[in-house]
Amino acid sequence: MKLSQGVEWGLHCTALVAQAPDGIAVSRRLLSEHYGLPEAYLAKHLQALVRAGVLTATPGPRGGFRLARPDEQITALEILEAIEGTAPAFLCQEIRQRGTGAVPPEDCTRPCGVSVVMAKADEAWRGSLASVTVADLVALVPSHTRKRNRARLTGEPTGDR
Amino acid sequence: MKLSQGVEWGLHCTALVAQAPDGIAVSRRLLSEHYGLPEAYLAKHLQALVRAGVLTATPGPRGGFRLARPDEQITALEILEAIEGTAPAFLCQEIRQRGTGAVPPEDCTRPCGVSVVMAKADEAWRGSLASVTVADLVALVPSHTRKRNRARLTGEPTGDR
């Protein structure tokens, strides 16, 4: 079981957009260069984040991406689901209704215990991600990295060579 | 993100083995026929469950599979990890250290916030599965299905046509 690389990209890029001062849109190029990501492939994920209501996109030479809502109102789960979709990792094939031991349909009005257990685990996973906001992600970035990011996002000198 | 079908097979087959009366080993053929599963492919997963200490295998014409430990001591997580492995679904590629925004190595002694958040979600998922035992899975099987399974496992008539 593997999540796509896009999840890491989406979480980092959204957290970086959240570090831009008010009124500053972050270009796709800046995002791709900042993290060394392929721009065309990143574009696909950024569009998914726009469709999911995480980011807004403004066209034009000074255009780019902004958060669609305040950072404390956007969760890590929304970003993950924008990229990976909402389908649970466990897909019940109802094997209880197959083979010589097949349980008759009239005894299958309640979901199979195995799928209930897997669904609860999926809820625990999503619940954990729903409890983390973009504001929390930004707070986990060390303060000097945040300061340097802010300078980059505004086009100020960063003090780097 | 998808779990393999083997997870469903492993959970159901272990729960069925747990329903066999003491001293009765459940053959691979019975398991594959009971759930309508391809025997050769199921064999691979059953071997993984033996390696993981969930099942024991006895060779010979009356051989088959038994639980390696009491059903209340085997968790759904052990079965899942026997089939899927223990690697987390999220693989951090450390993109914070790439590109023009690369954080220098000396500032990366602590794990990246994104990977911390994803690791916590993974723990919540595995924790949920670790809280469920094979005894719980058996208890979720309706009582008349359990009775019928027991008859099949002992070779008694099941009352089915």
Automatic annotation (TrEMBL), chains A, B:
Pfam families recorded: Rrf2
GO cellular component, one term: cytosol
Top-rank taxon, per record: Bacteria
GO MF, one annotated term: DNA-binding transcription factor activity
This protein's name: Rrf2 family protein
